[in-house]
Amino acid sequence: MITVAGYELDEARRYGAEGNLWVADVDACADAGAIAVAGVVRLGLDPLGAQSSGDIVAISFAAVGSLLAPRATFATVEEAKFVGPLRTPAGGRLRAFNEQALQAPGAINADPLGVWLVELVDVRATELDTLVCGEAALRAWFERSLARLRNEGMIAE
Questions:
Q1: What are the strands, taking DSSP E only, across the chain?
Q2: Would 157 be classed as within a structural domain?
Q3: Domain tally, the chain
Q4: I want to staple 26 with a disulfide (CB 3.0 to 4.6 A). Which of 31, 40, 130, 147 is the partner?
Q5: β partners of residue 3
């Protein structure tokens, strides 16, 4: 884990430059209940994405089995004053969604790195290679994202 401007990031994960989503190989996830399956990735909100979303009160997911292109909507979140899409940073087939996130959406805000949202299979390695990874790149990207969201009034100083 690394800390950038007070936010913890898992440097073993990749991050979508837009949408503040993380992507992790299932076999690299720390979830004790996870079954390691090669080629399966999980998506979740990063800490900045969770904070800028506000309190998530509901979430709905695309249907299991859906084929999703990059930037396709895989979920819709409902916040206290907003309803909007979450878009996948890489394409693939939706294998599963997290029942915990569906039943207790507030858990996403409480533990963004610990609560995954969906699992995708058949994700192209070339698409994963476009995501932000590595400590130096993560720090630079995250600091830019934080500054942008502060300028837009999405995050308090």
A1: 2-4, 7-9, 14-15, 21-25, 41-45, 56-61, 67-68, 73-79, 83-87, 92-97, 118-121
A2: no
A3: 1
A4: 40
A5: 8
Q: Does residue 106 form part of some domain?
A: yes
Residue 109 lies in a domain: yes
User: 125: which residues sit within 8 A by CB, 6+ positions away?
Assistant: none
Q: Which domain holds residue 104?
A: 2-151
Q: How far is CA 9 from the centre of its chain?
A: 12
* Cα 5–chain centre separation: 19
Q: Is the pTM of this model over 0.85?
A: yes
- Asked if 65 and 96 count as a contact pair (C-beta separation under 8 A), the reply is no
Spell out the per-residue pLDDT of the chain, length 157, in tens.
999 988 999 999 999 988 889 999 886 554 434 444 446 899 999 998 888 888 899 999 999 999 999 999 999 999 877 788 999 999 999 999 999 999 999 999 999 999 999 999 999 888 888 999 999 999 999 999 889 888 888 776 6
CATH, residue 82 = 2.40.50.100
